[in-house]
Specification:
Blueprint (H helix, E strand, L loop, with lengths): L26 E12 L2 E9 L10 E2 L2 E3 L11 E2 L3 H8 L3 H19 L4 E2 L13 H8 L5 H8 L2 E3 L3 E8 L8 E9 L13 E7 L1 H9 L7 H10 L5 H5 L7 E2 L2 E5 L2 E5 L23
Parallel strand pairs: 1-9, 5-7, 8-11
Antiparallel strand pairs: 1-2, 1-4, 2-3, 2-10, 6-7, 8-9, 12-13
Helix pairs in contact: 1-2, 5-6
Organism: Kibdelosporangium aridum
Protein name: Nudix hydrolase domain-containing protein
InterPro entries: NUDIX_hydrolase-like_dom_sf, NUDIX_hydrolase_dom, NUDT19
Amino acid sequence: MRELPKEMVLPESMVPDEFPDPPVTPKDAATVVLLRDTSAGIEAFLLRRVVGMAFAGGMSVFPGGGVDRRDADADIAWAGPPAEWWASKFACPVPLARSLVCAAVRETFEESGVLLAGPSADSVVSDTQPYAGARKSLVEREFSFAEFLADTGLVLRADLLRPWANWVTPAEEPRRYDTKFFIAALPEGQRADGSTSEADHAEWRRPADAIGLWKAGERGLLPPTWMTLTELGEKATVADAMATDRTISKIIPKVIREGRILRPVLPGDPAYDRAVGHLDARPDDTLG
């Protein structure tokens, strides 16, 4: 695994002064990286979370969110790889795998307006405007995603998703998520609008350009977003990305304090094994 850049640091507000003991149990979550091809190369859809939000405020992220207990509804009309296949890819129980795929499609619709579903197992909606009211109701949890699909006669298109990664929030942080990352191509005719109360800006960016804005201090990126953009930046087309067969394992960053800086490190980094407990160091201590 490649190392994070040395300039990758975490906002002090994300990590408490004292190490949570025991660490907070991560909540299951799903994130979807929407992709499209352009003449300049592959682009990814990013949302900038509203400053002041409890988790990752001000950061540029991909659409996603926590699993809702109703995402486990077994009556959802489903096309594509079954839950057992997804469970094998993410090394998780089958019911959870089903919930994760449902959450991925639901959250993508809620946060970007992109709907990975269609009238049949081999079609996808090209205009999501007729479902704008339902989108708002889903955000407000007035009904479940399964009920929405049943009412509209739509089929969840699991085959439009591909598994990409599994990131777990560092144990040092008070809000933790065990997040499964998916990628998906923007369906023809649809557009991502970013009309969500959780974001104040939405944009399509080539991965290299998004990272460039981060380097210039114009965007905030967390380790999973930086790594995903870096990996996708190596793909020439969306088809290349979708055809990638990845072996997925949990990636759990750790956090070390270097002076007044909080730096995340990944397995393989020389500092990784000595990271635990470093948050107890005095702010004027410099480590490694």
